[in-house]
Fold this sequence. Notes:
The structure is a single chain. This protein has strands spanning 10-13, 18-21, 25-34, 39-47, 55-56, 74-77, 84-91, 98-104, 106-116, 126-127. Strands 2, 4, 5, 6, 8 and 10 form a six-stranded antiparallel β-sheet that branches. Strands 1-9-3-7 form a four-stranded antiparallel β-sheet, with no helix packed on it. The chain starts with 9 loop residues before the first strand and ends in an 11-residue tail after the last strand. Strand 4 (39-47) and strand 5 (55-56) form a beta hairpin. The protein is globular, with a radius of gyration of 15 Å. It is built from no helices and ten strands. By secondary structure, the chain is mostly beta strands.
Amino acid sequence: MKRALFDTVTILPFESGSIFDHMGYESAVLAVTVAASGKATVKVEHCDTADGTFAAVPDSRLFVDNPTDKDGNAVITNEAAAEAVGNLDIDLIGCKQFVKVTVTGGTAGALALGDATDHPVGDVAVTAPKSQDGGGDT
Length: 138
């Protein structure tokens, strides 16, 4: 049986604080660059609407096999002497439709949405975080 792997995954450029609609996808992999001998934390929040109030996801299995801090944020540690990219597996099943991901101490580079519930999947939009002056990023 042939699998429809490439028809069931969407890769998005991503930056910290972005909001995405995960409708149609049950998991994600976030690529995070962490400085040499550094540590990054990843906070995931969710909401029913893209412009509503986001809250922490109350799911102890949100970050698949990844350590978390006391606040439930994922922790990615780089003990190497060079910058490294870590991939963080996120289980979206317990999340509301809109998800916001914030990375502290590292740089988010890409988000891969997977486990599509329908084939082929539709287009996914990402809303970039607002800049400090209140406008959107350009």
